[in-house]
Amino acid sequence: MTTTTPPRPGERHLARMARGAEGIKPSEIPTLFAVRGRTDVVSLAGGMPNLEGLPQRAIADETAGLVALGGKVVLQYGSAQGLPKLREQICEVMSLEGIAADPDDVVVTVGSQMALDFVTRIFCDPGDLVLTEAPSYIGALGVFASYRADVVQVPVDDRGLVPDALRAALEDAERAGRRPKFLYTVPNFHNPAGVTLAVERRAEVLEICAAHDVLVVEDNPYGMLALDGRTFPALRSMDAENVVYLGSFSKTIAPGLRIGWVTAPAAVREKLVQAAESTTLCPPAFTQAVLSRYLARHDWRAQIDTYRDSYRVRRDAMLAALAEHLPEGSRWTRPEGGFFVWVTVPDGVDTDALMPYADRHKVAYVPGSAFYAEGSGRGRSELRLSFSYPTPERIAEGVRRLGLAITDYQSAH
Amino acid sequence: MTTTTPPRPGERHLARMARGAEGIKPSEIPTLFAVRGRTDVVSLAGGMPNLEGLPQRAIADETAGLVALGGKVVLQYGSAQGLPKLREQICEVMSLEGIAADPDDVVVTVGSQMALDFVTRIFCDPGDLVLTEAPSYIGALGVFASYRADVVQVPVDDRGLVPDALRAALEDAERAGRRPKFLYTVPNFHNPAGVTLAVERRAEVLEICAAHDVLVVEDNPYGMLALDGRTFPALRSMDAENVVYLGSFSKTIAPGLRIGWVTAPAAVREKLVQAAESTTLCPPAFTQAVLSRYLARHDWRAQIDTYRDSYRVRRDAMLAALAEHLPEGSRWTRPEGGFFVWVTVPDGVDTDALMPYADRHKVAYVPGSAFYAEGSGRGRSELRLSFSYPTPERIAEGVRRLGLAITDYQSAH
């Protein structure tokens, strides 16, 4: 006797799915957050910001005032490009990293993820080439895959993207008759690698890309989160013509507002606005107005200092615990900002196969393979740890458990 | 001596734009709202909801309470599919139109525009065929064009989409060896036609589509806004397997929250969630929580009654003014809900060429050509008027000015 599974409702409609949509696949991101409700597991997986320091009362009061005073405006349709006042404030934020932009060159998006989706949609046909770091942000690899772009990943070292490796990748592409549509890079406090592009490399990276006439997409969610309060000159500040800059308030204020932005040279910006009009008509006027009022009336720089302090003790806790608990042969990066430490495990340990061991010890991490293009087979000796969300005590405990998981794995193999 | 215009910043990058992005073009929607700040012009163009009846104080208090109590949750990342509690409430709303859906089948989106973008992205490769009403919603035509889908528009009469015309369009397509990816339809209080699909036609439309194995995309932003408080059975309530339903709170609560949704059979819904993850990670938790709390703690049905009352006096003002001021040979629809009246002007008047006359008389409308696929040459004897936003007095004055503009035009031709 055989049993057959009945088709799911609507299954047959998928038989007529667009070929262009075949790259839209389940993301690994939800699984990163899946353990968030489980108190028995220490999650060092998801990169959620810690909102302990957020002045909830102030945001509540500001929001109430805003709605009571201007509800008929902030609850109405707005402009596709975003609230003009907020775009001015975004220019102020960017000026801290040396960017001189006009509010006209800024497009507000529903998180910077949406900005990356638009940029990719505008430039990439299936089979087009994108360069990015090895490893790279999961969400970016997901977007590139969703448009069926090919990804070539360029090595990083402790000082970020390696210029010679970038040059070699571009020359390889050229020999193959291909010109990448853009280089996607996270120069500051890289997700997942935890490294920062050295200032003296920045001009070189830009020159290499300009020489090959390749656009640079600079994604900078963590730039304001240097643990010592420094800022680095943005690539965009050095080459406004060839850099599309993605920014976000998700890590400096709060992700629940879903407000990011893209700053682009005028011709590209115009296409981005058109994509925004077609996709959402406009970003929510409500969240933009709340954020704008908060930025105007509160000391948001001091607020970011508070966040930095909370991340510094967490980073320190993680580095100390790694030194104490990880077995010999382990290495890791020492991030000076952002949320992430990138760990290389001892020879012979496979971070995909390590997952059930970590599960038994009730600790969660993200295996390195998630940060490489699908099917590359890379990343199996690496893993990502996030120190942004748990308390320092939980971080120490989580790393201790990870050490036990690795030791168990080694004993069993 | 010749002068050359310098290229805009970033212009040369557009030379390498994706072929797939060539359909992303400027929308006509911003121009509809362009006169909104000008008090000398009566705008009957944009379809902004009237938010006079919105209880701002209540929304302000609810939002403040929400942030003060649960800020760390509502300002954090959420799920790509949307807040579970809100998806339950959306099922309650849909039950008023006879839909029995599971919260699992609902995906919250940034306005229903984004839901339509996702559906089109999932199903349409360039050159694929979509059927829709003639005329059709500008924003939908924009999305279809952005994915370079071909559009065939099927006539409507006073009782909505004409079944025989739909059958003929499907047979024509079949003879040409093409099967449409879906029928996009606005059954209730159509934008721009102002007509409603007769209940006795609904099953017939579904049967015709099922016989040709064509998915139906039902867009229903105005369903709750019948001026007499009636509701009509949703197409989705009659065929859950073959209908993807788009809903919105933009017209029943407020557009500034940008909360819409899509209800789809499981297999299609799963792809929609994947598209959402890739595009925005998640819709804003903040606006979802505000809306959910408002729905839970306030009599939103009574609130919609208030909106209906305000739209009824506006619709009546517009119909009375049309009868009084439009020259002989004009015809118009008599909407029983929604925001729009569709006007056919007297023979010999071209509604594109009428624009400067209307401008001189300081009244704004949308020419009919905007509601047909680009290059079709259709709609030039038609125009759309919106009665949703201005006061009844301004509506009467606007229609008076439109009458003068038409008469001027007739004298000049």
Automatic annotation (TrEMBL), chains A, B:
<dbReference type="InterPro" id="IPR050859">
    <property type="entry name" value="Class-I_PLP-dep_aminotransf"/>
</dbReference>
<comment type="similarity">
    <text>Belongs to the class-I pyridoxal-phosphate-dependent aminotransferase family.</text>
</comment>
<feature type="domain" description="Aminotransferase class I/classII large">
    <location>
        <begin position="55"/>
        <end position="402"/>
    </location>
</feature>
<dbReference type="GO" id="GO:0030170">
    <property type="term" value="F:pyridoxal phosphate binding"/>
</dbReference>
<comment type="subunit">
    <text>Homodimer.</text>
</comment>
<dbReference type="InterPro" id="IPR015421">
    <property type="entry name" value="PyrdxlP-dep_Trfase_major"/>
</dbReference>
<dbReference type="GO" id="GO:1901605">
    <property type="term" value="P:alpha-amino acid metabolic process"/>
</dbReference>
<dbReference type="GO" id="GO:0008483">
    <property type="term" value="F:transaminase activity"/>
</dbReference>
<keyword id="KW-0663">Pyridoxal phosphate</keyword>
<dbReference type="InterPro" id="IPR015424">
    <property type="entry name" value="PyrdxlP-dep_Trfase"/>
</dbReference>
<dbReference type="InterPro" id="IPR004839">
    <property type="entry name" value="Aminotransferase_I/II_large"/>
</dbReference>
<protein>
    <submittedName>
        <fullName>PLP-dependent aminotransferase family protein</fullName>
    </submittedName>
</protein>
<dbReference type="InterPro" id="IPR015422">
    <property type="entry name" value="PyrdxlP-dep_Trfase_small"/>
</dbReference>
<keyword id="KW-0032">Aminotransferase</keyword>
<dbReference type="Pfam" id="PF00155">
    <property type="entry name" value="Aminotran_1_2"/>
</dbReference>
<keyword id="KW-0808">Transferase</keyword>
